[in-house]
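Two proteins, back to back. First:
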Amino acid sequence: MQPIINSSIPEFKVEAYKDGQFITITDQDVKGKWAVFFFYPADFTFVCPTELVDMADNYEKFQKLGVEIYSVSTDSHFVHKAWHDASATIRTIKYPMLADPTGSLSRAFGVMIEEAGMAYRGTFLVNPEGLIKVAEIHDNNIGRNADELLRKVEAAQFVATHSGEVCPARWKKGEATLKPSIELVGKI
């Protein structure tokens, strides 16, 4: 298995549903800004809407950090629209809902469950250069937390702009960081 951290996102072109419209999203749309790819198994399921609404409730916070959210499932953009129309919860989503009916994007990110035709819960933070900085994959029975993802975004953005500093466990924006050196060895 090849490491995915610091690898480039794949070239892609997919249909999406956003703000009552069908749009096309490509890898070129992602580059130049921070992005989160938020893979989930399927529309009209159980854990998925709780996660997607958690992201929707925190979307403004991500936007203030300059981060675009892209939810992705192997459903079509038509199914995304139907779910949006049918569910008051999903109607709160303002970020693009990417359609991956062929599974090519799910395969490229290493989250495709071939025998099920759907993705694991994969979360990937991509920097403006198109490099994956955070990768987390859950079994489909385990939901994710947008607050923890926000913390990871802030940590990734901090270390991207503060060469030589690292963020310790449970670090939050504004707290002390570490500057690795021989003087710290065995002292933490």
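And the second protein:
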Amino acid sequence: MRDVQNEPDLRRIPLRKVGVTGLRYPIDVLDKANGMQTTTGTADLFVNLPRHFKGTHMSRFVEIFHAYRKDLSMKRFLAMLEEVRRRLDAERAFASVKFPFFIEKTAPVSGQPGLMCYDCGYEGEVFLRDPENGGGISRVFTVSVEVPVTTVCPCSKAISRHGAHNQRGRVRVRVRNTGFFWIEDIISFVESCASCGLYSVLKRKDEKFVTEHAYENPRFAEDLVREVYAGLKNAVSLSPPLCEKPFLWFSVEAENEESIHRHNAYAYAEYTSP
């Protein structure tokens, strides 16, 4: 049959990205406690389109993603991207997938179990370094994790006769690495940097513990970003270490949904390995 996508385009305008967006699919990701976890991913998949092609073959993106859906570990994710690039005859392939990640977390005193949901994602790019001369392949892979936390205001605590205002906050971490690490370890570390982590199930004795623990560990948004930044920069030397190899790049942002202000409080930092 006629292949319109492969026909020449007389406008000769190259496109940076073509592909599919919003592909919702069941996927399996690595789970530290259970081996694998089945969740629902929302994926965007792209390649570049040279100026002499009219279009790309959209169905191939879905075919390839379907084949890799049962294991979207870092290596498999990048292998999927390389297959997308190769099968669509492109110089570059890009992908992102967002998914809810569930961890069973026990209350700090009663030990009551409950599930916590964290919004996570993968982003990747595979490209030819020197396409004109058949250069080698470069690969970039980034993991993003959003961790909900509790923060207590240090200023409010210092100036108030009774108590201090506190609020729920969000810490968003994006890390880039070539070694292995667990999403769960990143989450636990971020929670340890906050005034307190969140829980889905709390009995009264647990509420007492988390309230007092948070009050004893006040954090500005700025404090939170700096604490997480310092740990990620020294991730290999922590006990236990967060990853096998140092992070090549990362960003940290914290946003507090202020309980006594109409606005939110925000801080951001990023690091690139020298």
